[in-house]
Amino acid sequence: MRLFLCAAAFQTVLPFPTWAAVDGHSLEVVRKALESPIPSSALEQARQLDEQMLRTGTAMGTKVSLVTDERLQHTQATVQRMLTAIGETPESWVVRVLDTDPKVVNAFVNGGKCIYVFTGRG
Q: Given strand 94-101, what is the order of strands in its sheet?
């Protein structure tokens, strides 16, 4: 259920079909990953990668810029509702909306507590 909730939430932000978010992983694998505890080392690595992205303006080899307009507010509200629905504390998560160069449409979670949404605009 969480997988479908996540896909539905990001479908409201990103212009791609829900099936694209699944990317070949079985529902059982995704469910186990969502229910397992996040190691503190993964949280620290995610924090370091987030700081590096902010400092360098790049993510995964792509130039990025932070979005601070209504797209960020819409995404944060959507993510907050999604996290609350699955029993997570939204305040412990970081949400970043990014414009990219070249344009990329994507969303991913880094280290379990950092959510990135690429808008597809540059």
A: 58-59, 62-66, 94-101, 114-119, 105-110
Which residues are registered as beta bridge partners of 108?
116
Residue keyed to tokens 């505890």: 37
Domain count, the chain: 1
Structure tokens at 80: 């907050």
Kind and range of the H or E run holding 109: strand 105-110
Helix axes 27-35, 2-11, angle to 10 degrees: 100
pLDDT tens-digit map of 30-71 = 677 767 888 888 888 888 999 999 999 998 788 999 999 999
> CB–CB of 50/114 below 8 Å?
yes
Range of the domain at 42: 2-119
32: left (phi over 0), alpha (psi -120 to 50) or beta: alpha
Separation CA 2–CA 34 (nearest Å):
8
Amino acid at 79: V
Total-model pTM: 0.69
